[in-house]
Amino acid sequence: MENKQNLTDEMIPYVEFADNANERTPCVLVLDCSGSMRGEPIKQLNAGLKALEKELKEDIDASSRVQILIIKACGKEDEAEVASDWVDAMDFTAPVMEAGGLTPLGKAVHLALQKIEAQKDLYDSCGVSSKRPWIFLVSDGEPTDYGWEQAAEECIKAQQNKKVIVHAIGTQGANMEKLAKFSLMPPKRLVGLKFTEFFLWLSRSVSCVSKAAPHADDLLKDIEAWNEE
Amino acid sequence: MKNKDAFQIVVASTVGPYHKARGLDGQDCFACMQNKGRVVAVVSDGAGSAKHGKIGAKYICEKICEVLMKADFKNIRQNVVDAIEYARDELMMHRLNKTKNENGLIDFSATVVGAAYQNGKGVFFHIGDGAGVALMSDKAQSVVISEPENGIFASETFFYTMDDWKDSLRFTPFEKAQSLFLMTDGVTGFALKKNEKTLEQGFVLPINLFLMQETDSKKAARALKNTLETPKACRLSADDKTLMWVRLK
Asked: What is the CATH number of the domain that holds B149?
């Protein structure tokens, strides 16, 4: 008599499952991790990223359709660096961010646009379709790098050419006027340190958009949990 | 005692992670009948958005098999149309159809992927997504594919319960096939390349080879089911998955 183990072990050998050919929704987080984020703000930001990881992984559709890239703007030399490179949400592990240095938002956004173009080339070469990428620019201050205005213009042009959608989010102390230069939409203001609420909204929104679900627009407008206005 | 002339049929149907996570039943159904050198096979995917999609899927599979097994094969296409009309008529009078007319059919929305085969000649009949594949040999140098059809949006497809279902009904003939695959949408992404017109050989050929060689039908069905339920398959496709394989020679 066959035992249960044998029954479950039976498998057709050498079957290949084509790698996930789902349409991808690329999502870039550009995070200000400058010195002013030290203490409770960076702690709350990290808690929010953990919540984002959990929420995306638990969403069966989003986990295979959303791709995440995290860029941090920080450092003494006005550096922008990749904190977590492109990865499917199912494989995303929230990086632990540390605060320090200045706020090179221009360089960070420029890097985000470059990484998006390279990723779109990769999609094309693999025959994977994709939705318009999102950039979330989150800052508690203002850009400090030389030439940030050009990067902001580059960002606006990319949006006008429908290459990307940019959401600018300011936390307490952010210069909303300067943040507004990066996006065609007015920047939003985060209430207190509600990073977790913000990232949960982000996860639900990007999930909804990735599925082209009905009422996605309504969800995108439902920002009461974290928006000040 | 086994009939040596009978078609060998192996089918596996699994509930996808999407429904499992919500404690829901799968919405796929299938049916297959054979007699005197004729085989009729159908799989159907009940729409997740429809209240009684699974009933719609069950009805179409059963009614098509019932009608086509008795039909004159020369008029098989007309008989497919008649069978779908028969299923629709039955659903109009179904106790869960509150309107008792065509307006209530939307609650029973389901796709149709089927095939009828006799004397070396066959035809796929198809409404909506899912796919049919006829392999002429075990190396797939020659294949006939009945492709999925989707609407303007990726998640939109067509159902036999729609008013204009006849516009979406497609027939694809094939001849002298070695084996057939019928599948619902949850499997299509593995069996066809992204363009949905070309075979993903790394998936289809090992399954075909294994099933051609496996003489124990229960073991074959278990292996097929286990294969569709591997963590990778579930991770890549959250849909219910139904795959029917028919050996024709």
From this structure: 3.60.40.10
